[in-house]
Recover the amino acids of this structure.
């Protein structure tokens, strides 16, 4: 299946980085102990995915980090826009945990601090 509205021609690191960012930041709504176990399983699966990809073709690690941050921002911008417009849109990343996961990934990989506030789409420090 091809996601036509979001199709791009880019280097492989974009596809891999986007997948890692999307999957690693989706909120897992389970009791704490199960959530920790599920997050560990997701982390293991993503590391295996990246390792299997690297076995077939090299990935530029800087580009991989860049595209993870790019994807996290791409997921976060509609959240900020909805909040600034006073809307409570649905979707995994529109929750506090989902937005928080995206913000944490951006900070971890880039060192950039991002905040979402009412009436302001994004604040970048």
């Amino acid at each position: 299946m091809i996601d036509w509205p979001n199709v791009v021609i880019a280097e492989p690191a974009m596809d891999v980085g986007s997948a890692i960012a999307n999957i690693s930041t989706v909120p897992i709504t389970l009791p704490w102990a199960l959530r920790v176990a599920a997050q560990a399983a997701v982390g293991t699966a993503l590391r295996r995915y990246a390792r299997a990809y690297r076995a077939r073709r090299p990935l530029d690690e800087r580009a991989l980090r860049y595209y993870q941050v790019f994807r996290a921002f791409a997921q976060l911008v509609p959240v900020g826009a909805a909040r600034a417009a006073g809307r409570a849109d649905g979707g995994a990343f529109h929750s506090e945990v989902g937005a928080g996961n995206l913000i944490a990934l951006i900070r971890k990989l880039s060192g950039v601090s991002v905040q979402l506030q009412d009436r302001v789409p994004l604040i970048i420090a």
